[in-house]
Specification:
354 residues, mainly alpha, 16 helices
C-alpha cells in the first residue's frame, strides 16, 4: 500500500502534530522565566512560524503551485480569512497569557472545551442536529469544566486557581470555536498552507503591536541578546507552529477528520505530562476526573460527526502540488482509486490550532 494512504502512518502523523503543540505550555513558561512577556512570545512564535510556512509556500510555488492573492478573493472570502486571522491572534494571546497565570494542565483542559462550543453553535445555526450523543457530550463537557474549576484550590505551583487565568483559557476556547466555524465556510479557494501563513502573519503583527504598546521595543528585542531564549523561540515557532500545522493537515487527509480530531486529544495529555516533568505541576483528583470528562466529551462529539461532510472547511489545497503529487497527474485518478479521497482532501484545518 502507498505509504501516503497508510492509516497507521496518518495516525502517527496527527499524534506527532498534537504532541508538538503540547510542548507549547512548557516552552512558553520557559521563556517567561527568561524575562520574555507572554505577548512577545506570541509575536515571536507566530512570526517564526509565518516565515517557516512562507518558505514552504515558496517551495510549493516552485513546484508549479498557484498563489492565491488577496485581490482574487471575493468580499466574503476576505472577511472570513481576516476573521480567522483575528481569532488566531486572540486565541494565542489568551492561551499564552493563561499559561502565565494557571497550571498548564488547567489551561489546556479548559481550552479543550471548544469542541462542545462548536457543537452547540452548529446546532444553534442549524448546521448539525443536536441529537442525543451531542446532548450527552455537551452535558459531560460542562460537568467536567465545573470539576476542573472547583476541584481544587491548591493545584499546581501557582498557589491557587486564578479565575482570570481560567477565563483566559476559556476565551481561547471560544476563539478556537469561532475559528473552526469560520473555516468551515470561508476562503476555500486559498490553499491551506497559504491560509495558515496569512493567519500566523496576522497573529505576529497583532502581537508585535500589542508588545510595543504594552512593554515597548525592549520586550521584542530581548531574545536578540540571549542565545538561549532565541533558541527556545525558534523551536516554538518551527516545531510548535509551522511543522505541527503541516503534519496535522497532512494527517487529516490520510485518516479523516473524526480520527484526527480524536488523536488531537494527545495535545493536553502531552502538555500535562511535560508540565509535571519539567514544571513540577500537578492537578487534584477531582480536576483530573473533570479533564477526563472533557476529553471524553470531545471524543463523543467527533464520533457523532456525519461521515460525509456537509460543510466544507477552509483552504482546499491544490491537488497537483500537495504532499509530493506529480504536476500534471490525472486529478480524478486518485478519487477513482479511493472514493473517500476527495472528502478527505476537502477537510482542511477544521480542528487545527493556528
Amino acid at each position: 500500500m502507498d505509504g501516503r494512504r497508510s492509516p497507521l502512518l496518518g495516525s502517527l502523523t496527527v499524534a506527532l502534530a498534537a504532541s508538538l503543540f503540547g510542548m507549547l505550555g512548557v516552552l512558553s513558561r520557559t521563556t517567561y522565566e527568561l524575562g520574555l512577556t507572554p505577548i512577545a512570545f506570541v509575536a515571536w512564535r507566530a512570526g517564526v512560524g509565518a516565515v517557516a510556512t512562507g518558505a514552504f509556500v515558496a517551495w510549493g510555488l516552485r513546484r508549479g503551485g498557484r498563489l492565491v492573492g488577496w485581490r482574487t478573493l471575493d468580499r466574503r472570502g476576505r472577511a472570513a480569512l481576516g476573521l480567522a486571522g483575528l481569532m488566531g491572534a486572540t486565541l494565542n494571546l489568551a492561551m499564552f497569557l493563561a499559561f502565565a497565570r494557571v497550571p498548564v494542565a488547567i489551561a489546556l483542559l479548559s481550552f479543550y472545551l471548544y469542541p462542545a462550543l462548536v457543537a452547540g453553535a452548529s446546532a444553534l445555526f442549524g448546521w448539525e442536529p443536536m441529537d442525543r450523543p451531542r446532548v450527552i457530550a455537551l452535558v459531560v463537557a460542562l460537568a467536567g469544566m465545573v470539576a476542573v474549576v472547583v476541584g481544587g484550590t491548591d493545584a499546581g505551583t501557582t498557589g491557587g486557581l486564578d479565575p482570570i487565568g481560567v477565563a483566559l483559557a476559556l476565551s481561547a476556547a471560544l476563539s478556537q470555536a469561532v475559528f473552526v466555524l469560520v473555516s468551515r465556510h470561508g476562503y476555500r479557494e486559498v490553499p491551506t498552507d497559504q491560509a495558515m501563513g496569512v493567519i500566523l502573519a496576522i497573529s505576529a503583527l497583532i502581537g508585535v503591536g500589542l508588545a510595543l504598546v504594552g512593554a515597548g521595543p525592549a520586550s521584542l528585542v530581548l531574545p536578540l541578546g540571549d542565545v538561549g531564549l532565541l533558541a527556545v523561540l525558534l523551536v516554538a515557532g518551527i516545531f510548535g507552529a509551522a511543522i505541527p500545522s503541516f503534519l496535522f493537515l497532512a494527517g487529516i487527509r490520510w485518516i479523516g477528520p473524526v480520527r484526527a480530531g480524536i488523536l488531537m486529544l494527545t495535545e493536553p495529555l502531552v502538555g500535562v505530562a511535560l508540565a509535571a516533568a519539567f514544571l513540577a505541576e500537578a492537578i487534584g483528583p477531582v480536576q483530573a476526573a473533570g479533564g477526563v470528562a472533557i476529553l471524553a466529551a470531545a471524543v463523543l462529539l467527533q464520533r457523532a460527526r456525519p461521515t460525509e461532510p456537509t460543510l466544507m472547511p477552509a483552504a482546499e489545497p491544490e491537488r497537483e502540488t500537495d504532499f509530493g503529487a506529480e504536476v500534471g497527474a490525472d486529478p480524478d485518478a486518485e478519487a477513482r482509486a479511493d472514493p473517500d479521497a476527495e472528502a478527505r482532501a476537502d477537510l482542511g484545518a477544521e480542528v487545527a490550532r493556528p
